Each structure stands twice: as structure tokens, then as C-alpha cells.
Amino acid sequence: MSEERTPIVLTIDPSESFVETPAIKKIVDRSLSYLTAGFPIHFSGPTGTGKTTLAMHVSHKLNQAIMLMFGDEEFGTSSLVGDKLGYRKRKLIDNFIHSVLKTEEDVSQRWVDNRLTTACKYGLTLIYDEFNRSRPEANNALLSVLEEGILTLPVSEEEEGYIKVHPNFKAIFTSNPEEYAGVHKTQDALLDRMVTIHLDYFDEETERAIVVAKTGISVQEAKKIIGILRDFRQANGVSRPVTIRPAILIGKVMKQQNIPVSANPVFIDICVDALASGRNHNDEAKKAVEIVIDLVQKHCPSPSQMVRNSWGRFVSKFSNQSKGGEI
After folding, report:
1. Which residue of 51, 121, 266, 298 sits 20 to 30 Å from the alpha carbon of 106, by its own alpha carbon?
2. CB distance 199 to 50 below 8 Å
3. What whole-number distance in Å separates Cα of residue 13 and Cα of residue 19?
């Protein structure tokens, strides 16, 4: 029999910086509807789209304790279910008759439940973050859990060789795209047992609200930073995914250093470091730096640039009116 022990679980309080715009609330409400109906959910999408944060937020809304796991290449089935760790020794001394001493000793391997088994037994919310970093065969134990509500265990450890999953058990999974390094292709049978919600980069309103909440800068400053970030994503020659993390970094540094978000040398350097660094090829890095500088000038024009732009618009309008016979 498995050794009973008090499980170590997590309780999560909502972060003050969590942003719930209409776009995020829609995802949260859908997720809760699936979970309360008994279906596991799966947040899939590129890095930086808030999958783990959403999983934590949704699990908090369920108002029950959490068991957290992270996918790992070294995982096997025992990493989820449990294993025999060490030994248990029992000794019985019978001296009921003073002239007779009877001693019995029994040594057996000690079984310890792992996190999936604990979550199934006690009805916890399992968050399995980046589960496709584990090899597919390691996740086979999940198939019967999610479909039949049964967790299979080694026969010697349970009388029936299985346990019934607690009715309050919930499961939330997250994963990165298969083309990412260290990610395995998930078996179709497992994906078919969960509701996959594909996440992409959030809309501009949500990203702006996230930067304001995470950094404390003004809405107008966040609007400029997000404008640079979103245009940089669309720029030709930028092949690496661009998450919202650089925008948060830029906003935090500008707030900490009390530097205005404008086309000043410090702001340009920080934008270049946050957005253009880490490029593998010199040509790509040079192209990225040029794009960042152009975008800073576009979204944070200096007074001289604004005067030239206004004068240019005036000249263009005057020229068009002249062609139409109006002065």
C-alpha cells in the first residue's frame, strides 16, 4: 500500500498587476466553463503569450489547492505517478511468556506518491506547465486519468492496481509550439482528451494595459513603447519571436531611472538592447538596430521632427488646394 502523507500544495492569490481586459476575460470565462464541465484545458502558443500566468489565474478562480508540475526531458512515468523510494522496516517482539522470546522482522520497499497521483487522490487542480517538454511515453498515465477517471498504479502497491480520480480533480496544461527546441510532439490521443485554446500575442489595448500595470509608467508612455514593439514584430528581417517582455523591461528601466519615453539617446539604447540584442548574425543584428532606431523616431518624434512633419503636411495641403483652384 502507498504511504499516506500530507500533500504539499500551492494556494495562489491574484497579483495586483494582473490585467483582465475584455479579451483576457473572454478566455478566462471559456476556460472555467470547460473545467467546471469536467474537461481539462490546454493553453497552446508561442512563448510570452501569458500561458502560465493565465493557467495560474484560472486555477485561482476554481478556489481549490494547486499541484504544479513542469515538463522535463528526464521525466518517466514514475515522475508523475510515484515510485519505490527506500525501505520500510517493521520489527515485532513478542515476550508474552517470559521464558519465550519471539521476534519478527519485515522489510518492504516504501512507495511514495508523486504529483499526479496526489492531485488525483485529493481532488487538486493540476497545472502541468510546458508538458510537451516531457517525452510522450512519460505522459501516458494521463490518458486513463483524463478519459476514464482512473489512474493505473503498479499492482503491488494498490489492491486493485488503480485509484479512482477524485471528482474535484481539474487539469490545466500549457505547451510551446513543436518547432521550439526541447519540445516533443504530443500524442494525438492525449490532445484529443483536452480542450486546446490557442493563444497569440494580445491586442494592443491589452499589451498597453499590461505594460502600465507591470511598470507604473503612464498610458501615453506605454502607448509609445507598445507601438514600437508591435511595429518591430511586423518589420521585415526580424525572424525571432518578439514577446511583450522587452516592452516591460523598457518601461521598468525608464520608470526606475526617471527618464522620459522620448527619442533621447538613453531611451534609444535601452530599446536597442531590449529588442535587437541576441541576434545570431551580424547582418540581422545590424538590420534590427536600424529598424529600432527608425521606430523610436516614428513613435517618439523630437520637437524638430514634429515641426518638420507639420510643415510637410501644410505644404502638401496647400499644394493640393492650389491644384484645385483654391488658395
Report:
1. 121
2. yes
3. 14
